[in-house]
Amino acid sequence: MKEKNTPITADSALLAGRLRQGAEQLGLTLTADQHQRLLQFLALLVRWNQVYNLTAVRDPLEMVARHLLDSLAILPYLDGDTVLDIGTGAGLPGLPLAIVVPERRFVLLDSNGKKIRFVRQVVIDLELANVVPVQARIETYRPDRKFSTIVSRAVADTEILPVLKAGLLTQPGRLLIMKGRHPDDATDSQTWPSATIHRLHIPFLDVTRHLIEIRSD
Question: pTM value?
Answer without folding.
Answer: 0.90
